[in-house]
Specification:
Length: about 475
């Protein structure tokens, strides 16, 4: 089985090498013409303007530049005032609203997106609108709904390759990694190119194939057709580099992503992460604050708060934790499920018992690996180590889908084992966490090192005597 999977990935790399060049050439003309809005008003002949660029992006499931996205939204809104029965334009507008909400971390766009996509469905039950609803559900972290809409879109159009992206994301969020791999295999049969490579990279990363994931993202960034798309794949490459503890490579990826697209705020938060790991804390704080100003993602607030806490700035950390709670409430008004990040916050910086209650409910809704890790840690913080270990094992055991090599997950498992007096496994997993990424958290990595020192060296067992 493993050799077949390796062979399949090799075929993907070879196919991409042959096909991407041809795609870039032909899409530079024919692909852009196909992507023009229905009234055809955008740019000079052979030179795609912002509307075509944005529409191509949102219909292919790749990031769009914020100015282009704003232009597309204004254009489709104006068009629909005169043509309210244009189902395709309603679907495009809904997809653009989702992307705008995602890029700005503003959940107020999501109810508008849902209304537009459902209006599109009233005209005719079309795969484009169903796929848009799947993307919206993923943005809200409602993976069961996303899976249902993705499968409905594929029933309506079995060869709609873009519907496989949200299906893969939804299956991953539900910890159904076999279904995610099947969906990826089908996608690879239908399509090649940078968007597909980026989807493949996410699956490879979740299975622990970091080298394959990094190679796929590198190829995707090289073949990207717009600065916004290239910046997104560079940012993901930076994430991978940081996960393996390569601070300099991560920072380089994030800086290049920001140079390519100054609105790539995930890369700016990534800069903060890498700079903190490099000991450049003043720059790290500035990067985090700049990212949060333009894209107030709760996870960024949590990371910034923990950086403040690691520096002994408890009051500044509490400000960020309070802001996180406010942002979670605002996101909830737009239908976004942020229980995971709120549970993580409560486990480490609030009420662990409340974290357990939140994360148990989240586990019932969508039992992904990140939820398993967070629930296990919350149980540990609440003093329930026996049950905590069962979830920590799920998060780190490849047999249960926990193939991703995460220093944080491994650290959590080690600390639970330590408190259960499982000294050997605890020592081994603390060593592994620090080997995966010695800089995984400004707050927890020093705890891991101190815990490992306290456990000491394993006892020396004398060799049996020769007889």
């Amino acid at each position: 089985m493993e050799s077949e999977e390796k062979a399949a990935r090799l075929r993907v790399r070879l196919a991409n090498g042959v096909v991407v060049g041809a795609l870039v050439g032909c899409l530079g003309f024919g692909g852009w013409l196909m992507a023009l809005p229905p009234d055809g008003r955008d740019g000079a002949a052979g030179s795609p303007g912002p509307l075509a660029l944005a529409q191509t992006a949102v219909t292919a499931g790749v990031p769009a530049a914020l100015p282009d996205l704003a232009a597309l939204i204004a254009d489709r809104e104006a068009h629909l005032r005169g043509h309210p029965k244009d189902s395709e334009s309603w679907a495009v507008l809904g997809a653009a609203y989702v992307e705008q909400g995602r890029r700005l971390a503003d959940a107020e766009w999501f109810p508008r997106a849902e209304r537009a996509l459902r209006t599109s469905l009233r005209g005719r039950r079309n795969a484009q609108a169903l796929e848009g609803l799947a993307v919206l559900a993923n943005a809200r972290r409602d993976f069961r709904t996303a899976r249902g809409y993705s499968e409905a879109a594929l029933r309506a159009d079995a060869r709609r390759w873009t519907a496989y992206g949200p299906l893969i994301e939804a299956c991953t969020g539900l910890n159904d990694h076999k279904a995610a791999k099947r969906a990826l295999d089908r996608l690879l049969e239908l399509r090649s190119g940078p968007a597909v490579q980026a989807r493949a990279a996410a699956v490879y990363r979740d299975r622990g194939w970091r080298e394959d994931a990094a190679a796929a993202l590198s190829d995707a960034a090289a073949a990207a057709r717009t600065p916004a798309e290239r910046a997104a794949w560079l940012e993901r490459g930076g994430q991978l580099a940081f996960e393996r503890g390569d601070r300099e490579a991560a920072l380089s990826h994030f800086q290049e992503a920001l140079r390519t697209d100054p609105d790539q705020r995930a890369a700016q938060a990534g800069q903060g992460r890498a700079l903190a790991a490099l000991g450049r804390t003043t720059e790290a704080l500035s990067a985090y604050r700049a990212a949060l100003e333009k894209q107030p993602v709760p996870q960024y607030a949590l990371e910034l708060g923990e950086l403040y806490e690691s520096l002994g700035l408890g009051q500044a950390a509490r400000v960020q934790y309070d802001l996180l709670r406010e942002r979670v409430r605002a996101a909830g008004a737009g239908g976004v499920d942020e229980e995971l990040v709120l549970g993580v916050l409560e486990a480490d910086h609030g009420d662990p018992a409340a974290a357990v209650r939140r994360l148990r409910a989240e586990w019932q809704r969508q039992p992904g690996i990140a939820v398993a890790d967070a629930l296990g840690w919350a149980l540990h913080r609440a003093g329930q180590d026996e049950e905590a270990l069962t979830f920590a094992l799920r998060a780190t055991d490849a047999e249960h889908g926990g193939g991703v090599r995460s220093a944080l997950y491994t650290f959590h498992r080690a600390m639970i084992e330590r408190d259960l007096e499982m000294v050997g496994p605890a020592r081994r997993h603390l060593q592994e966490a620090l080997r995966i990424n010695p800089y995984f958290s400004p707050l927890h990595a020093p705890v891991a090192r101190r815990a490992l020192d306290a456990l000491g060296e394993p006892p020396k067992t004398p060799l049996p005597e020769m007889r």
